[in-house]
Amino acid sequence: MDSPPDSLQRLNQTLLEFARERDWEQFHSPKNLSMALIAEAAELVEHFQWLSQEQSYLRDQPEKKSAVAEELADILIFLIRSAERLDIDLIAAAEAKIARNRSRYPAERVRGDARRASEYADAAD
Question: What total number of domains does the chain contain?
Answer without folding.
Answer: 1
